[in-house]
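Need the bound structure for flavin-adenine dinucleotide, inputs here:
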Amino acid sequence: MVNFKLDDMQEGLKELAHEFAIDEIRPHAEHWDENSEYPKDAISKAHDLGILNLHIPEQYGGMGLGCMEEVLVNEELAWGDPGFATAAYATALACAPIITGATEEQKQIWLRRVAEEGHLASYAVTEPGAGSDVAACKTTAILDGDDYVINGEKMWITGAGYSDFFFVLAKTDPEAGYRGMSGFIVEKDTDGFSLGKKETNMGQRCSDTRSIVFDNVRVSKDHLIGGSESGGWMNAMKAFDVSRPNIAAHATGLARASYEHALQYSNERMTFGKPLHQHQAIQFMLADMKTKIEASRMLTWKSANESDEGIRNTESAAHAKRFAADTAMEVSTDAVQIFGGYGYSEEYPVARLMRAAKVMQIYEGSSQVQRMIIGREITKDF
Ligand SMILES: Cc1cc2nc3c(=O)[nH]c(=O)nc-3n(C[C@H](O)[C@H](O)[C@H](O)COP(=O)(O)OP(=O)(O)OC[C@H]3O[C@@H](n4cnc5c(N)ncnc54)[C@H](O)[C@@H]3O)c2cc1C
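Answer from helper R.:
Posting the output first, comments after.
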């Protein structure tokens, strides 16, 4: 049986996140974006309310909830403001490879710090010369006595300026391609670790994005995730099976916010003697926007549900992420169109939402990369 009805706990969580978005996110979203201000207090409040990092298991101090609960919350947070949602989700992404690949002792340390002390973390994989092609990473971690010495640079790291620790993918065997990659935890105050300047991005400007540099950074062996070399690439990629449904949920929330603004405006704005929505061309635009949002949510829920059921969801997560991200871009662009000249002004939120949408087609695997994944999955038996 397929049941699309949420249970009482899920409804309650969704409502809690929605109220938080109304009270603590929307009133500040324009200010955060205009001033490129990191929403540190709001992230801290969301943590205290218990709506972040829901997938950390109870035995490590977390809520132990599923991907389904996370996507419900993330749609609401992004409805509030996509930049806030991205900034707040960075820690959950960094925790994903710890949950799947770390030793019991490592989980007790790092996951507890997030769940109980509100520590923030970043997922550091991309490099100046390696984005879609992760295997081209050049950062190395070479064993020297009881320490690994890390050298290299990571690029576009969300939350870097505020994170307490980082999940870092580095090559322990530079000759072995992706098989020679290992995951490490690096704390922000480690000698030789430094931050680059904050990027000036097109949208989602409250989210802090910057490079990080490793200049002979020494970490002890117990910072090697899982306690053994290699397997880092697989672990880093597995994180996407959990995170992509959540990015799809962000995209759905962004599209929904854009659509709601456009629908409201179409009832207020008169042209040729009637409200905009009474012109069929506009009404059909609104209808198509709504259909794509509904479809985005269904793909998101399906991939989240598969993750919770222990079903391999690599393909469904790619469908959800690709479709929802493209929908966010299309719907927010159409919302600007429905607002006409006013849509082009930063006076109204639809311009900010359209700028925010673009990165959803780029990060966490671009829309092209999602198609590559889907293509690989559907042809693998040939
Ligand atoms: C705001 C922001 C936040 C980010 N946060 C993080 C983070 O927290 N951690 C992290 O590790 N990374 C992060 N990233 C990096 C992001 O994941 C990469 O930018 C993304 O994977 C694309 O890599 P690239 O920029 O190097 O583009 P490239 O890989 O150089 O690709 C350029 C273009 O070519 C396309 N392309 C590449 N290869 C192919 C192919 N084989 N076939 C067809 N098309 C192809 C891509 O889709 C893209 O459109 C972030 C990026 C941004 C912009």
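Comments: DSSP finds ten helices and nine strands in the chain. Strands lie at 121-124, 140-144, 147-158, 165-171, 181-187, 193-198, 209-220, 270-271, 274-275.
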